[in-house]
Design brief:
Layout: H1 8-16, H2 22-40, E1 43-46, H3 48-63, E2 74-78, H4 105-112, E3 116-121, H5 155-162, E4 168-172, H6 179-185, E5 188-191, E6 212-216, H7 219-229, E7 259-263, H8 273-288, E8 292-296, H9 304-319, H10 337-349, H11 352-365, H12 370-394, E9 397-401, H13 417-422, H14 428-433, E10 436-444, E11 450-457, H15 462-475
Parallel strand pairs: 2-3, 2-4, 7-8, 7-9
Antiparallel strand pairs: 1-3, 4-6, 5-6, 5-10, 9-11, 10-11
The chain binds glutamine.
Glutamine binds at residues 127-130, 153, 173-177, 205, 312, 424.
Length: 485
């Protein structure tokens, strides 16, 4: 499907030039979804009628010469975003029937800019996972190799792009959930600085870490979508009131003279040989582009996974207390009395990984263990953030691998949660530090699986990251292509 491989800039030109209507483009997306979704399982909900109605409205705006870069462009959203009158399951049985009465702020912003929401994307239940195997809607398959995981938790968001189902998707990243699936599916994904994008109306997992961000098939589209959703929101007290730069204005400025740091703790013995080769080649390209490469140290990196899985589970255990069979979603009434109803509802509604994390988090917060685990983890978190801030006194950006290996096989780590958690080693520290980072394609493994490289930036330096990402994309020909489905 040729239309589905175009960038949104190219699509926008066709829409504005009268060569293409949003209705026709939306229909093409719906057809592509219809023929590929049984293989990839990236969509939980497709809202064809609503999408075609929104597309017709966008066409009216375009015909009048109005609208912006997103007007008439189909987009799909991770099923974690509340969408008014549209099923929002968060990949869980407990929300199998949940139809929100309101839109998340980012959803409202997209609608106001004329984007056409075509559906909701598969994900690990409550965004807990690195492989998209923890979904009540079944696993997502990597479009590059259907036996492999697409990454998680925004696996549907990355797979839908690689499969050519849509050109833009929105995900969330609590410990790598945008960057890691982007890397495994050969697409681009950006995790903004904590506070850059509103979390209002986004189902909470670990509130001090969760952040919303864009995924796309190229850097320019990613920058456009970030600009469309970023900004202060009075409904989210953690969003920061600092102006949103024009990310496109500086995108092509190059990276001559910029200092890029390589944190030595990220170049470890366990790194897959293909990943190492691709990252080493990327470093050479950055040198040729005029960047200065220096080695730096983030000495507390080793503690990040343990620290994250204490803080994230503690916050999750608290956030998920709200699913009690009364306020949201599914209710099981067979139990005895109120407590019995809670027990039945939660036992039937949550999957194994979510239950594991609620138990871990509740334990870490319980009296007597709070100081030993939760409080200690918070202190370690401060040290990890400090590592980054110290490194950024010497360099403008950091460059690392995204994941230690290319996409692993479905089922390979499903019975070994610790191995699964350890695969997050390169993405988690950034969330603990609250900074911004991005994954961009930088090669393919010998087995034909995409490999991503990661760029980290200073607080609110998304524009700089995008600039460095664009320079790399423009100098190479990785990414941008659809998986041969
Ligand atoms: N894999 C990590 C986890 O399972 C990160 C998930 C995320 O970023 N939402 O918690």
């Amino acid at each position: 499907m040729e239309l589905n491989s175009l960038t949104i800039l190219q699509l926008g030109e066709k829409l504005r030039g009268g060569e293409l209507t949003s209705v026709a483009l939306t229909q093409a997306c719906l057809e592509r979804i219809a023929v590929t979704n049984d293989k990839v399982n990236s969509f939980i909900t497709v809202c064809a009628d609503e999408a075609l109605a929104a597309a017709a409205e966008a066409d009216a705006l375009l015909a009048a010469g109005d609208g912006g870069p997103l007007t008439g462009i189909p987009i799909a959203l991770k099923d974690i975003f509340n969408t008014r009158d549209l099923l929002t399951t968060c990949g869980s049985k407990i929300l199998a029937n949940y139809i929100p009465p309101y839109d998340a702020t980012v959803v409202a912003k997209l609608r106001a800019q004329g984007a056409v929401i075509v559906g909701k994307l598969n994900m690990d239940e409550f965004a807990m996972g690195s492989s998209n195997e923890n979904s009540a809607a079944g696993p997502v398959r990597n479009p590059w190799n259907l036996e492999r995981i697409p990454g998680g938790s925004s696996g549907g968001s990355a797979a839908a792009l690689a499969a050519g189902q849509v050109s833009l998707t929105l995900g969330t990243d609590t410990g790598g959930s945008i960057r890691q699936p982007a890397s495994h599916c050969g697409v681009v994904g950006l995790k903004p600085t904590y506070g850059r994008v509103s979390r209002y109306g986004v189902v909470a997992y670990a509130s001090s870490l969760d952040q919303v961000g864009p995924l796309a098939r190229n850097v320019e589209d990613c920058a456009t979508l970030l600009g469309a959703v970023a900004g202060y929101d009075p409904l989210d007290s953690t969003s920061v009131d600092t102006p949103v730069p024009d990310y496109l204005a500086t995108l092509k400025d190059g990276i001559k003279g910029k200092k890029i740091g390589l944190p030595k703790e990220y170049f470890i013995a366990g790194l897959d040989a293909d990943v190492k080769k691709a990252i080493d080649a990327a470093i050479e390209i950055y040198k040729q582009l005029g960047a200065e490469i220096v080695e730096v140290s983030l000495p507390h990196t080793d503690y990040a996974v343990a620290c994250y899985y204490l803080i994230a589970t503690a916050e999750a255990s608290s956030n998920l207390a709200r699913y009690d069979g009364v306020r949201y979603g599914v209710r099981k009434d067979e139990g005895e009395g109120l407590i019995g109803m809670y027990q039945q509802t939660r036992a039937a509604g949550f999957g194994d990984e979510v239950k594991r994390r609620i138990m871990l988090g509740t334990y870490a917060l319980s009296s007597g263990y709070y100081d030993a685990y939760y409080l200690k983890a918070q202190k370690v978190r401060t040290l990890i953030r400090q590592d980054f801030l110290t490194a950024f006194e010497q360099v403008d950006l950091l460059l690392t691998p995204v994941a230690p290996t290319p996409a692993f096989k479905i089922g390979e780590k499903a019975d070994d949660p610790l191995q699964m958690y350890l695969s997050d080693i390169f993405t988690i520290p950034l969330n603990l530090a609250g900074l911004c980072g991005m994954s961009i394609p930088c090669g393919m493994s010998g087995e034909g699986l995409p490999i991503g490289l990661q760029l980290f930036g200073k607080p609110f330096a998304e524009a700089e990251i995008l600039q460095a990402a664009w320079a790399f994309e423009n100098a190479t020909d990785f990414g941008g292509t659809l998986a041969p489905l």
